[in-house]
Specification:
The protein is an alpha+beta fold and about 375 residues long. About 35% of the residues lie in helices and about 20% in strands. The chain has a 5-stranded antiparallel beta sheet.
Length: about 375
């Protein structure tokens, strides 16, 4: 499978083309829109979310609510384009001087992007570098998520930490996570921690500052053997980490115990292997986070990502004008105070894409029924091996 996205933050629309989905997959615009709505939610979002109400339209590849095996084309219109059409128009008459940006913001793609592409107006950088682009990736990942549901794979993400406030460690099962998170403003399974997180967000909003945090994603019922150990670029943990690191503002990724594993002896890290007739091989612990040797091992995938504080601040940091080289405070674009819950939703869907791609690498199939048949036979084999 592969996909491409296109579109600018204040342009007419975001578009995506997805290739490689098997035919016969039931999927609706409503299903994708539910994921897009989740991305726009969360306490601490900014003014853009009051303007946009993301809705996807299928342009090709889906007929009667079923994929046809041909490329799926999707579009998400930007409602704010009506306020920007004179500035962002692709026509030669666009007003390129209005709202031009020459003051790069620390922590953004602004300065290196302008240098790389020789742009005199940093707007040419920030329009595409904006996290608005993740709406298209959520739409793409939703198709992969729908595919995984057909083989009983469940993906759940939640916010583990915002700023200095963390949830209490608890062995949440999948149904408990889903139930609690659906009632949360921050996708947080710990109500007491969530109250403290909201207090921190409110404090930062008053101070014109921003907050980052950590989210965790778990995937249940994955068959063992997705990914490979034979080449570096086929290792699933590398692909998952790259997918999360490609999300705007993500600065760190860990799987299972992650960095904690570097601090303790191996006897406290590696998951012992057991066997039970009818169940097959299993572990009683999951410190590896479901990945060993670049492959799924049959245990739940556990992966976390650290998001830095959003770099657009309402009390701007110091910068230097691109043209005059004079010192200024950086320009301010409309922004959020905290977008960790939104990043978590994006993370769920980029992880869904990588898992679905790995699934089809192992079980190539042109039709959903062929895929389900192959996965069922493989799972039967795994229980008996």
């Amino acid at each position: 499978m592969r996909y491409l996205t296109a579109g600018e933050s204040h342009g007419p629309a975001l578009t995506a083309i997805v290739e490689g989905l098997p035919a016969g997959l039931p999927v609706t615009e409503k299903y994708v829109n539910e994921q897009l709505a989740r991305r726009q939610g969360g306490y601490g979002r900014g003014g853009r979310m009051k303007i946009e109400k993301d809705q996807v339209r299928f342009l090709s590849g889906v007929r009667g609510g079923i994929t046809m095996g041909s490329p799926v084309a999707m579009v998400i219109e930007n409602k704010d384009y009506s306020n920007w059409h004179k500035i962002m128009s692709p026509a030669p008459g666009a007003d390129l001087d209005k709202n031009a940006v020459s003051r790069p913001r620390p922590g953004h793609a602004d300065l290196p992007g302008a240098i790389k592409y020789r742009h005199r107006d940093i707007r040419n950088v920030l329009e595409r570098a904006s996290a608005r682009e993740t709406a298209a990736r959520v739409a793409v990942g939703s198709l992969a998520r729908r595919l995984l549901e057909e083989i009983n794979v469940v993906i759940v993400g939640f916010v583990k930490q915002i700023g200095s406030v963390s949830i209490k460690n608890k062995g949440y099962d999948v149904s408990e996570l889903q139930e609690v998170i659906n009632r949360s403003q921050l996708l947080c399974p710990d109500p007491e921690a969530e109250k403290q997180m909201i207090t921190e967000i409110d404090r930062c909003r008053k101070e014109g500052d921003s907050l980052g945090g950590i989210f965790e994603i778990r995937a249940f019922h994955l068959p063992p053997g997705l990914g490979s150990y034979v080449h570096f670029d086929r290792k699933l943990d590398g692909r998952l980490a790259a997918a999360l690191m490609s999300i705007q503002a993500i600065k760190g990724v860990e799987i299972g115990k992650g960095f904690e594993a570097a601090q303790v002896p191996g006897s406290q890290v590696h998951d012992e292997i057991f066997y039970s007739p009818g169940r097959g091989f299993y572990r009683q612990t999951n410190n590896a986070g479901g990945i060993e040797g670049g492959m799924t091992n049959g245990e739940p995938l556990v992966i976390r990502a650290a998001m830095k504080p959003i770099p657009t601040l309402y009390k701007p940091l110091k910068s230097v004008d691109l043209h005059t080289k004079e010192a200024f405070t950086a320009s301010v674009e409309r922004s959020d105070v905290c977008a960790v819950p939104a990043a978590c939703v994006v993370g769920e869907n980029v992880i869904a894409w990588e898992l679905a791609a790995a699934l089809l690498d192992k079980f190539p199939a042109d039709n959903l029924d062929d895929l389900k048949w192959a996965v069922k036979n493989y799972r039967d084999y795994v229980r008996q091996v």
